[in-house]
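Design request, tokens follow.
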């Protein structure tokens, strides 16, 4: 069966967020990154700035020479991070199979969501609409049978693009593009290919693999497959394999221990439920705190036995929290996560410790949540 892969990529992300938040910047060449006379580089440029040749990763001083009337803005990573989480949350409503590539970019495997939400193009349209409705920003989306083609597609009609590549059209669409568009072909390989008179992807498509190998060696098979639009790398869902976490930003920075602990408990419940859902247990528990001044710290503890139990997560996270001095520095964000994930030994683990009741309760709560949604159940204030 063909896969349906989406690549979602926000347009000029940092610059777009700044323009969104300051209408005076609309239509201006906005350059987010280092100052015009500083060492350091451009992190993002609005499309107006790009017309002057400004692009990300370029030295800011070069950008200033190209576009002296550009509006240089320092990045506000906390703000972009918050918008990024908003976007990833939207994506998660369409499929759990998400691979975030960077703060503003992700792959989605929607093969399993097709019946539910319509075909891949319909899902792509809904994602674009939802992102725009919730954040006021535009994304470009590529729809294709694999990751390489999806990423290529999202880049073809920026900004606010929606491009579909299919098994039927892929070879044709790839043929006229420069070899540098092939995944993994950097400056060095590009030069090498050009020396062999291979300038477009079509040039590679037409060459027998054996001949290509004679010219460029071991990378031949791989490049030839890519040139034909073949790529079998799966969408690697990070959260499912590496860690499961939850975090919360308070509306107002707080030093109120009761409020902080209440939030922590809710997060432990969420993490516990997701660990059980993914059928994994965490050996390591980590606590994340961000202070009012945006300093962020992470504390972790590895357990003798892996756990899926929210009360055990809460106990450990609570200890980690107690070791920090939060009385003076108020808390902006708190988060808890389980990592070092292993197969659970649920029955033995919980039951041996005489926690049968707790395991049953957790299971019952999970079932109710599944039926009623995550907001349906929150524990009372068993916390001091
Ligand atoms: Mg982007």
């Amino acid at each position: 069966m063909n896969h349906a892969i989406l690549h979602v990529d926000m347009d000029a992300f940092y610059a777009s967020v700044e323009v969104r938040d300051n209408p005076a910047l609309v239509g201006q060449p906005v350059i987010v990154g280092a100052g015009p006379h500083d060492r350091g580089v451009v992190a993002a440029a609005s499309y107006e700035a790009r017309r002057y040749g400004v692009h990300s990763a370029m030295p800011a001083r070069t950008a200033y020479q190209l576009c002296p009337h550009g509006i240089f803005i320092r990045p506000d990573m906390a703000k972009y991070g918050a918008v990024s989480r908003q976007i990833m949350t939207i994506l998660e409503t369409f499929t759990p199979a998400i691979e975030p590539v960077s703060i503003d970019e992700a792959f989605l495997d929607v093969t399993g969501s097709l019946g539910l939400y319509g075909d891949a193009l319909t899902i792509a349209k809904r994602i674009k609409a939802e992102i725009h409705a919730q954040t006021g920003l535009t994304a470009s989306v590529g729809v294709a049978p694999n990751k390489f083609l999806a990423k290529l597609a999202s880049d073809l009609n920026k900004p606010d693009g929606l491009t579909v590549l299919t098994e039927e059209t892929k070879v044709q669409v790839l043929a006229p593009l420069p070899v540098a568009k092939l995944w993994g072909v950097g400056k060095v390989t590009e030069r090498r290919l050009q020396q062999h008179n291979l300038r477009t992807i079509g040039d590679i498509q037409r060459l027998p693999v054996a001949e290509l190998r004679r010219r460029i060696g071991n990378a031949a098979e791989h490049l030839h497959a890519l040139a034909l639009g073949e790529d079998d790398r799966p969408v690697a869902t990070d959260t499912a394999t590496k860690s499961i976490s939850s975090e919360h930003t308070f509306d107002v920075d707080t030093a109120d221990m009761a409020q902080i602990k209440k939030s922590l408990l809710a997060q432990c419940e969420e993490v516990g439920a997701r660990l059980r859902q993914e059928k994994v247990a965490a050996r390591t528990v980590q606590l994340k705190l961000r202070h009012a001044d945006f300093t962020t710290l992470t504390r972790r503890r590895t357990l003798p036995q892996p756990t899926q139990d929210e009360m055990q997560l809460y106990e450990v996270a609570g200890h980690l929290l107690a070791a920090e001095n939060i009385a003076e520095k108020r808390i902006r964000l708190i988060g808890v996560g389980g990592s070092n994930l292993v197969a659970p030994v649920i029955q033995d683990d919980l039951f041996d410790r005489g926690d049968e009741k707790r395991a049953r309760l957790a299971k019952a709560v999970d079932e109710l949540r599944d039926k009623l949604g995550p907001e349906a159940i929150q524990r009372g204030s068993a916390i001091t």
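Comment from the thread starter after seeing the answer: thanks! The longest strand covers residues 243-254.
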